[in-house]
Structures are given as C-alpha cells and as structure tokens.
C-alpha cells in the first residue's frame, strides 16, 4: 500500500474479511506487515479490546484447551458442552 494509507479503511476491510483469510494473507495482499496492522488497529481501539493474532489450525485426536478464569482452570475438549461452558464462564466472571 501507499505510504499515506487510510488505515481506518484498511482496518474495516480487515474486520470484514472472509474468515478463511489469515492475518498474514490479508497483510501480504495489502502490502503491510502484521506489526503495522496491529499497531494501527490498537490505536483505533480503547485499552482492553482484543488484539489481532494469527491462529494456526491444529488438529490432534486428544486436543484440549486449558482455560484459566480468575484462578479457576477448566479443561475444554471438542466434546465439551458449549452451553454448559458458557454458563460456567459467565458465573466465573
């Protein structure tokens, strides 16, 4: 992209992109680095709002995720009941 980019427009395009398009792909297409995109995204958001990260697919038979919410650890697997998990997280916050 040009030096004088319209970052506001680029951030909006990023937020509306096809979810199958990774952060790296989006940045490559628009000729910016992930760091530049993160920097401008953070400037437009108040503190505490999520950050842009690259999540790579990971498949494993026994895949699990360990959540730590206010000191309570919850092991989440693909079989975890989503409604139950949502209720527990709401309770812990």
Walk me through the structure.
This protein is an alpha+beta fold and 93 residues long. Helices cover 40% and strands 11% of the residues. It has helices at 7-15, 23-29, 34-43, 82-92; strands spanning 65-69, 72-76. Strands 1-2 form a two-stranded antiparallel sheet. A hairpin with a 2-residue loop joins strand 1 and strand 2. The longest helix is centred in the C-terminal third of the chain and has 11 residues, at 82-92.
Key attributes of the depicted protein:
alpha+beta, elongated, 2 strands, single chain, two-stranded antiparallel sheet, 93 residues
List the helices and strands and how they pair.
Layout: H1 7-15, H2 23-29, H3 34-43, E1 65-69, E2 72-76, H4 82-92
Antiparallel strand pairs: 1-2
- Principal-axis shape equals elongated
Can you count the beta strands?
A: 2
- What's the pLDDT, averaged over the residues? 77
Tally of helical segments: 4
Distance between the termini: 42 Å
Q: Measured on Cα atoms, how large is the radius of gyration?
A: 17 Å
Biggest sheet features? 2 strands, antiparallel
Can you tell me the residue ranges where pLDDT is under 50 for at least 5 consecutive residues?
none
Helix share bin: 25-40%
Report strand order across the widest sheet.
1-2
Structural class: alpha+beta
Series of H and E elements: HHHEEH
What is the multimeric organization of the chains shown?
single chain
């Amino acid at each position: 992209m040009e030096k004088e980019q319209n970052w506001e427009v680029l951030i909006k395009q990023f937020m509306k992109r096809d979810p199958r398009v990774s952060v790296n792909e989006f940045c490559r297409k628009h000729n910016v680095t992930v760091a530049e995109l993160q920097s401008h995204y953070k400037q437009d958001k108040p503190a505490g709002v999520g950050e842009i990260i690259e999540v790579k697919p990971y498949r494993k038979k026994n895949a699990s995720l360990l959540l730590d919410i206010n000191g309570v650890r919850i092991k989440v697997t693909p079989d975890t009941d989503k409604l139950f998990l949502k209720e527990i997280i709401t309770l812990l916050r």
